[in-house]
Write a structure and sequence with these properties.
Blueprint (H helix, E strand, L loop, with lengths): L1 E3 H4 L3 E3 L4 H11 L3 E6 L7 E11 L7 E7 L2 E7 L9 E5 L4 E3 L6 E3 L3 E3 L2 E3 L2 E2 L2 H4 L30 H4 L5 E5 L13 H10 L3 E3 L19 E3 L7 E8 L8 H9 L7 H13 L4 E4 L7 E5 L5 E3 L5 E3 L5 E5 L2 E5 L3 E2 L11 E8 L2 H11 L4 H6 L5 H18 L4 E2 L4 E3 L8 E4 H8 L5 H10 L3 E5 L2 E5 L11 H12 L21 H11 L3 E2 L5 E2 L1 H6 L20 E2 L4 H10 L7 E11 L5 E11 L9 H16 L3 E5 L7 E11 L2 E9 L1 H6 L7 E6 H4 L18 E10 L4 H11 L3 E10 L6 E10 L8 H15 L1
Parallel strand pairs: 15-18, 30-33
Antiparallel strand pairs: 1-13, 2-14, 3-13, 4-5, 4-7, 5-6, 7-12, 8-9, 10-11, 16-24, 16-25, 16-26, 17-24, 18-21, 19-20, 21-22, 22-23, 27-29, 28-29, 31-32, 33-34, 34-38, 35-36, 36-37, 37-38, 39-41, 40-41
């Protein structure tokens, strides 16, 4: 966005005269300024020159030697321009002038040089070398870098270039990213308001937009709209002209200063209004319109030839204008070539529209075509600007175009919007900003930005001006406005008062996962979403699971009530991949059908060969869990329980207990469920409530001194029944002898289908004060075995 200070001066009188200070104030309070451009800064020590003689260079076929008339007498110059001729007026840079290198854009100072043996005292310049590309764009027939052609004759020869081009303006370049939420700032009027609000200018005259007297005759065609929500505000009328006229120099100068190229007076007027008010408009040759005008969404595959003579295929639902011959305008992006104003235009259809910004954005993406108009439209043009821009354009049409007269009533719909009241607390303002502003200061900041304010004790009722309805929605927006008007640089910087120390991290889950991986378990990371079919395969009721309101599909429509379904689903997908043992686990959040959720861990172990009782998945999984929990600092035990899960075998399950608290279950999967997932018989799983588990403090490991005396160890194989609880028997055995230091299962064996099994127990005996004799050890061992028997 480029701002002309001369243009701004039409509306305000700057109390700050230094352009850089103006730019700094705008940066501090409104938007970042990228550059302050003194117009024609490269034209110092340059003038209008005239070629008196032109001859070929004796030592170079592509160079010419020119004698020029300048403000400093005749100069001899070597030049490579291809469009030179005698009598031609050119742009001449004297020795000492600074020009731009066309290759890298850098500046270099001219000096007197010899080129192939011939003296050259300066340079005949191309537009790119002096930053005049906007005024003199090269045509396709001009070659790469033609010199600027000012025509023939003696007028203005020797005149300083800044005076010749009337370059007296200062242009401020605003970073568009800084105002992307402020459609009102894509205009000179918008920044005039800001300059007054931040105290660097005073209003010279506030713009007023009055309705002229329109004829009663309606437009010669009807405007029909598919959806007025896409075009909520609209104004249009018909103008007859005697000719399209010539664009005045002052308008050309301002358009060029802000980056626009003069095209024709009707187009220049609409571009001028775009820069002045931030309202892109368009004018059509009404004689080219056939039948009624339809505002509608485009259909897939429809095309339009735009003003740049490009044939563009439109995405679906781009907002277009069409008549009986097809689409003639891509609304909000670019007009069509067929309906554009031209030299012979006698009737101009002028319109101004507020268009849905989302639709404009989709059109930009779909066509890959961005214009100055679409950049403003996609920000959301304030509705109030639609009629203001229309009336300003109409004023310029009637003033500048020969014989222009309005010949229809104004066709319009929609309103300018109604601001909502926003409650704002002075205490809240100071709390958020870290200031101590009084109510008077807050009110002054808001009123400077044209907000309506009513005060009641410590609370304000604020209404936004109509041009700010798009970006002011609540107290947070008002506080930002107050802060930038107050000056963020005036707010004292202070360090946070809260502690910035990182919270203590709980490494228990990481340690537990690492311990399981060391036991060769593979962790996988599934979604916490699943479908009702998977729950039914696991024997669970889908109606008890938490439903998702907007599921991607039925297979991801429920929150997992348990981690087992994803364990089994993963096992089924990998059933053919493992040779002997499948060991997996995953952890995640589970939901119980209500609002409660907890962190859970699921572990699965499945072995293909289950004939050996010692290698059953249940016992191996129990052993692995014991090892993993010990790594975290917990001693886990199992207790017999009833059926705890629909997928658990009714006689082969237990609860996992830590410190007297039940933290999970360990079970064999029923043959019915196992077969659903192609798992081998007697696969086992453990489901652990990590929320409950981590609520228990781990036991600190205390090292003990090594025993002073040797132990005596006996291995004893006994027959044992599945109907007895081994843990209870071993507990009684430990109490039978004070010298029994440790008793553990060393081995077990069972025939397939047998109700009993053989158990090898390893008993360790030791005395703290002496070496046991064999007789003492045997006597104690007999006591222990008597209890076990």
């Amino acid at each position: 966005m480029k701002l002309s200070l001369n243009w701004l001066s039409d509306f305000v009188e700057f109390t700050e005269k230094d352009p850089q200070a103006i730019a700094d104030a705008i940066t501090a309070h409104t938007a970042e300024v990228d550059e302050v451009e003194e117009q024609g800064s490269l034209l110092e020590n340059c003038c209008v020159g005239k070629i008196l003689s032109l001859g070929k260079h004796p030592n170079a076929d592509r160079l010419s030697i020119c004698t020029l008339k300048t403000d400093k007498g005749e100069k001899s110059v070597v030049c490579g321009g291809t469009n030179l001729r005698e009598g031609m007026r050119v742009v001449f840079a004297h020795v000492g002038a600074k020009v731009r290198d066309p290759e890298d854009g850098g500046l270099f100072e001219l000096s007197k040089v010899k080129i192939r043996g011939e003296d050259s005292e300066g340079m005949i310049c191309a537009a790119v070398e002096l930053g005049l590309e906007a005024q003199y764009p090269p045509g396709p027939e001009d070659g790469n870098r033609p010199v600027i052609d000012l025509g023939d004759g003696d007028e203005d020869v020797g005149k300083a270039l800044r005076d010749y081009f009337d370059f007296s303006d200062t242009v401020i370049h605003i970073d568009n990213h800084a105002i992307t939420h402020r459609a009102d700032l894509f205009s000179h009027i918008g920044f005039a308001r800001e300059c007054v609000a931040i105290g660097i200018a005073k209003w010279k005259k506030k713009p007023e937009y009055r309705l002229p007297k329109f004829p009663k005759d309606s437009l010669p065609f009807k405007i029909k709209v598919d959806d007025k929500n896409l075009i909520p505000r609209y104004c249009a009328c018909l103008i007859e002209v005697d000719g399209i006229g010539e664009t005045p120099d002052w308008m050309v100068s301002r358009l060029e200063a802000t980056g626009w190229r003069s095209v024709s007076l009707p187009v220049d007027i609409t571009n001028y209004v775009t820069m002045e008010l931030g309202m892109p408009l368009h004018s059509f040759d009404a004689d080219d319109l056939k039948g009624d005008v339809y505002m509608r969404g485009s259909k897939k595959g429809e095309k339009i030839v735009t003003l740049d003579k490009e044939d563009r295929e439109l995405p679906e639902d781009s907002i277009v204008l069409s008549d009986d011959e097809g689409i003639f305008d891509l609304l909000g992006v670019m007009g069509g070539l067929r309906s554009s104003t031209k030299e012979g235009t006698k009737k101009i259809f002028l319109h101004s529209a507020c268009v849905d910004p989302v639709s404009i954005r989709n059109t930009i993406i779909g066509t890959g075509h961005r214009t100055d108009a679409s950049t403003i439209y996609e920000k959301g043009i304030p509705k109030v600007v639609v009629q203001q821009g229309f009336l300003r354009a109409l004023e310029l049409f009637l003033e500048l175009i020969p014989g222009a007269r309005v010949v229809s009533a104004m066709d319009n719909w929609g309103d300018d919007g109604t601001p909502e009241e926003i409650k704002l607390s002075i205490d809240k303002v100071n709390s958020v900003l870290g200031t101590e502003m009084s109510a008077k200061e807050v009110i002054s900041a808001l009123k400077s930005l044209e907000f309506g304010v009513q005060e009641k004790k410590e609370e304000l009722t604020v209404t936004a001006p109509l041009h700010r309805l798009g970006d002011i929605s609540g107290p947070h927006d008002l506080i930002e406005e107050i802060g930038r008007m107050y000056g963020f640089n005036k707010i004292e910087a202070s360090m946070p008062t809260e502690s910035t120390e990182l919270p203590e991290r709980d490494h228990r889950l990481t340690t537990l996962r690492r311990a399981l991986k060391e036991e060769r378990y593979i962790e996988f990371l599934p979604l916490s979403l699943l479908g009702p079919d998977l729950l039914r395969k696991c024997g669970l009721d889908p109606s008890e699971a938490t439903e998702i309101e907007n599921p991607i599909g039925e297979e991801l429509s429920l929150m997992q009530p348990c981690v087992l379904p994803r364990l089994l689903d993963h096992a089924e997908q990998n059933a053919k991949q493992f040779k002997e043992v499948l060991q997996t686990f995953h952890q995640g959040i589970i939901f119980d059908g209500g609002e409660d959720a907890c962190h859970a861990l699921g572990i699965l172990r499945a072995r293909r060969n289950t004939s050996n009782l010692k290698q059953s998945s249940f016992y191996e999984l129990k052993q692995d869990i014991t090892i993993a929990f010990a790594a975290v600092g917990y001693e886990v035990s199992t207790q017999r329980a009833g059926n705890l899960h629909p997928a658990a075998h009714p006689g082969r399950n237990s609860v996992l207990v830590v410190g007297g608290t039940t933290i999970g279950t360990l079970f064999e999967i029923t043959p019915t469920v196992a077969s659903q997932f192609d798992l081998p018989p007697r696969a086992a799983a453990a489901l652990i409530n990590l929320t409950a588990f981590f609520g228990i403090e781990p036991v600190s490991v205390i090292a003990e001194a090594l025993p002073q005396f040797p132990s005596v160890i006996y291995d004893e194989t006994v027959a044992f029944s599945h109907s007895h609880v081994l843990q209870e028997v071993l507990g009684k055995a430990s109490e039978a002898s004070k010298l029994l230091e440790h008793i553990e299962v060393a081995d077990l064996y069972s025939k397939e289908g047998a109700s009993d099994y053989n158990l090898t127990l390893r008993c360790t005996y030791r005395a703290e004060d002496r070496t046991l004799t064999e007789e003492e050890a045997k006597k104690e061992h007999e006591k222990v075995m008597k209890v076990i028997a």
